[in-house]
Amino acid sequence: IGLHRAIKRLEYIAQRPLLNAAEELITPEDETGAGIDALVVTSNAASPLRCTIVGLTDDLSIESAQRVCSMANVTVTASIPLGARLRDLDQRTLTELRQTPPDLVLMVGGMDTGPVAPLENAAQALVTIYDDIEPERRPAIIFAGNQEARRPVADIVSTAFNFRVVDNVRPSIHTETLGELQRELAQLYERVRLVTLPGYRHLREWCASPILSTSEALNRTWRFIARRNDLPQGILGVDIGGASAHIGAARGEVCQWVLSANMGTGLGVQRVLDLSGVAAVRRWLPISLPQEEAIVRLENTILRPSSIPQAMEDVFLVHAVARQALLLTMRHLRQQYWHRPGAKLEEETTPAFDLIAARGGSLSHTPQEGLVALTLLDAIQPTGLTRLAIDWASIWPQLGAISALSPLAAAQVLERDSFRELGTLIAPVGEAPDGERALRLRIIRPQHEITELEIPAGVIQCFPLGLDEYATVEVRPSRHFDIGLGRKGYGGRAEVRGGSLGIIVDTRGRPLSLPQDAQLCRVKLQQWLGNLMNHVHSVA
After folding, report:
1. In the chain, how long is the greatest CA-to-CA distance?
2. CA distances from 79 to 103, 170, 186 (A)
């Protein structure tokens, strides 16, 4: 129904028919210009897969399995370490597995020369649990454990379950092999979850290619942007939706990502609150909102996830939830891929990227671009010199799907009409008392107009530089800050491109530390937001 309405709207805009008298798509396009050549569809509308992980021990293989699940539309409901024997499959566990079968049982464990018997015993237990349950209610089983156990486990479960074998996620103590399991989980989500959506089969008949999960299509687009623009430091992609938060880092052919299922600004609000609490969300509000009122407004969002914010208080609250959801997802991404042994997780900083490309209804539908920028700066805490861009039309996933059929068309739309450039960000790493000099900035515009100024620590400031305008900036940080060169106090020079917010300088330091006093915190947020919202000003 929704698709038909959207197509009718497109017919009105394009002033040509796309549907025939039977309300079916006209394809391919005919000689009169009616119809289309192809339809591609992406969707994350289905709920995540519910997964139970069965492994030998809590560490190594189970940790690797949990890492892979964090990159897919998968919610891990239980992890069962077997140990040397089957002791952990107690009566309570067996009862829960039987009464509420997960969508998936992921079996991992053992190096490629590891033990076989515990996995065989677990496989036999699963057969026993689901022996008298109808096949369609039984979970799928994916085996990603040691090679020696593949055939014995397959002999036990393959006739009773939808059973797949992929590479061992931990073939040796120092080696992870996650790619094949990642792909299998993405395909399983499409086969098991997306097909349950109302109208899916009819829609699939219209499509020129399989319906992709939005996250998989978006990863394609991010990889394409990184390769096509030859970005040496890569792109950090951010997607905050109503039901999930997705952050991916693409450099060349490598794409690393984390997808936080059931965590977002609509249906996913509850999980954000469960993990963080109301206080963690309220600290991002630049206004005074009593806890009771915040809870009522958030509960209303959970009950009516498609509702539109009616007042600025609601907009601020949506962005506060978005910050917290992205903060948790970004923390997970750092832990998975960039964590330094021995370092405290809360002290980790985001590596430098050439571009931060963000999307999601809470961002693209917010007319106050300063608020959008502040949400990204607070949640992602980017460092160094980077550009900020928004998927204003919400088409990046669709372009990822189109690229499989027509790469040139996808590339042309992506380059010409999909980016809303917010500007260039300069964000040094370090800490200093508020008001102390953080860096000296020199902006040289094409007409040789030169602006020189000192930026104090603890502020966000914007300096005009329009869309498609370029300038040369020279930055000399104080001894407390590193602008991305690896050493504090070392300066640099670069050519930058402007945007709707121009050049943004964030000297609040990394990692970002908010004042503990609630009133002082609100004052700071108001100042930072005010500087971004009132960015059109002259610079002396």
Report:
1. 80
2. 14, 16, 20
Strands (E), 214-314: 235-240, 244-251, 254-261
Q: Which two tokens stand for residue 425?
A: 């960000």
Q: Distance between CA atoms of 105 and 96, rounded to whole angstroms?
A: 13
Among 454, 446, 429, 418, which residue's Cα sits nearest to residue 507? 429
| H/E run at residue 75 | strand 74-81
Give a three-class secondary structure readout of 454-480. Answer: EEECCCEEEECCCCCCEEEEEEEECCC
> What digits encode the pLDDT tens for the residues 325-350?
999 999 989 888 887 766 666 667 89
Distances (CA, A) of 399 to 10, 204, 217, 251, 360: 17, 18, 8, 19, 15
Distance CA 188, CA 140 (A): 9
Per-residue CA distances from 252 to 10, 73, 231, 256 (Å): 36, 24, 8, 11
Contact 389, 356 (CB under 8 A): yes
The residue behind tokens 């969707």 is 43
Q: Is 32 exposed, middle or buried (0-12, 13-18, 19+ CB in 10 A)?
A: exposed
Burial (Cβ within 10 Å: 0-12, 13-18, ≥19) of residue 292: exposed
Determine what percent of the chain is predicted with pLDDT higher than 90: 64
Residue 495 burial (CB count, 10 A): 10
pLDDT of residue 178: 86
Structure tokens at 531: 């500087």
**In b/e form, how buried is each residue of 433-455, taking b as 16+ CB within 10 angstroms?**
eeeebbbebebbeeeeeebeeeb
Q: 3-state DSSP call for residue 402?
A: helix
